[in-house]
Design a protein that fits this description.
Layout: H1 20-28, H2 34-38, H3 42-51, H4 56-72, H5 76-84, H6 90-94, H7 98-111, H8 122-136
Helix pairs in contact: 4-5, 7-8
Length: 137
């Protein structure tokens, strides 16, 4: 498995403000790491929604981000970028070409008005895709 699954679980430190309520509900339920969030099943997510103020959409997004963080050992902001660019799973990433990945993430950043140059370049895209493909086999 990835480096994040070895040793102690990785706690999230900087969830975006848009996930504030989900963080509160998750922490109330004793879920304080990316690994614990990744391991939640649909029934557990449903209970969190019923018992708190979390949005089902946001909890599913967070679980997807957690899966990418844990399986590919990505930084949470990189996993979130992939998720929001439409690359929501290891399999989807493995099926991309590096050029396609750079284009999709760059398009998302431009649509969000992020002024800095694309944070995913070809060497990074190739490395992520290769890692996803190795885990697929």
């Amino acid at each position: 498995m990835s480096g994040g699954d070895q040793g102690h679980p990785r706690e999230w430190n900087d969830l975006p403000q848009s996930f504030r309520q989900e963080r509160i509900d998750l922490e109330k339920a004793g879920i304080r790491s990316w690994e614990a969030l990744r391991d939640l099943d649909d029934l557990q997510l449903s209970r969190l929604v019923r018992g708190g103020r979390s949005s089902p959409r946001n909890l599913n997004r967070l679980r997807g981000i957690a899966t990418l963080v844990c399986e590919l050992d990505l930084a949470p902001q990189d996993a979130a970028l992939l998720m929001h660019a439409g690359i929501a799973s290891r399999r989807a990433l493995a099926d991309c070409t590096p050029e396609q990945l750079v284009r999709q993430t760059g398009r998302l950043q431009r649509s969000l008005g992020i002024a800095r140059p694309g944070s995913v370049d070809l060497p990074m895209a190739k490395a992520w895709i290769q890692q996803a493909r190795q885990l697929r086999n």
